Amino acid sequence: MKEQTLYDRLFGTRCHELIFDGMFLHGSAKIGEQTMAVIGTRDHAAIDGSIALQLSAAILQIVRADIADGIPPRPIIFIVDTQGQALSRHEELLGLNGYFAHVVRCVDLARRHGHALLTVISGEAVSGGFLAYGMMADCICALPDAQVRVMDLRAMSRVTKISLERLEELAKTSPVFAPGAENFRRMGGIHEIWSDQDKWPERLVAALASATTTDTRAAFGLERGGRQLAAPTAELVANS
């Protein structure tokens, strides 16, 4: 799907004003009476320190602007299309983990100032690039062709020293080992997967209305059969 067509389907034709700055995007959209801020990445961006700072600055600008204008906090829509963090010694030496931590703090600041946070995965959602801002939202939705994974099974094999064949076998029955949006939905990491037949603006508005700052991912993982131990273990710890 062409990028402009995607945003037209997501927000409605002529209902969005987005600015593209390389692989970073920001702007606004309006669906009915609902005005929202939009921030994101595009073209399978590898998120480096520069993009992380752009994401952080955009979040802070939205928070400051709404306070200065005296208006209710606008929802923030995160558009996610990232192949993950930039994999280079240069970025690691510059402290990319610190840049990502700064993004997370800015997301938390927006939440504490009353901004509803919703992620739409439009393309790829991989590893640290996804975790740093996309997975921090109150509600995470995936479009039909979204590709979601934390680590490729080949890379997982190298890290864990478990054979690729064994991991592929485990992935057939356990969503913890298997990539894909549906497996993340089963684990509770994704709230909704939309279909091509859905009216995406309606789904977006409904998802915003149902978003809550309570972290329900472990409960969803138990309910959907993707993570059987996370919720009981958390409850055990909380009650101990």
Task: Please describe what this structure looks like.
45% of the residues lie in helices and 22% in strands. The model has no long low-confidence stretch (mean pLDDT 93). It has eleven helices and nine strands. Strands 1, 2, 3, 4, 5, 6, 7, 8 and 9 form a nine-stranded mixed beta sheet that branches. It is an alpha/beta fold. The longest helix has 21 residues.
Précis, in short:
This protein is of the alpha/beta class and 240 residues long. The chain has helices at 3-11, 49-69, 89-93, 96-112, 127-131, 153-160, 164-171, 181-187, 200-210, 217-223, 230-239; strands at 16-21, 24-31, 34-41, 45-47, 76-85, 117-126, 139-142, 147-149, 192-193.
Largest sheet: 9 strands, mixed
Low-pLDDT parts are none
How many DSSP helices?
11
- Helix-strand pattern: HEEEEHEHHEHEEHHHEHHH
Strand content: 15-25%
Care to count the β-strands? 9
User: Radius of gyration over alpha carbons?
Assistant: 18 Å
| Outline | globular
Distance between the termini: 50 Å
Secondary-structure-derived class: alpha/beta
pLDDT averaged residue by residue = 93
Helix content: 40-55%
Which helices and strands occur, and which strands form pairs?
Layout: H1 3-11, E1 16-21, E2 24-31, E3 34-41, E4 45-47, H2 49-69, E5 76-85, H3 89-93, H4 96-112, E6 117-126, H5 127-131, E7 139-142, E8 147-149, H6 153-160, H7 164-171, H8 181-187, E9 192-193, H9 200-210, H10 217-223, H11 230-239
Parallel strand pairs: 3-5, 4-5, 5-6, 6-7, 6-8, 7-9
Antiparallel strand pairs: 1-2, 2-3
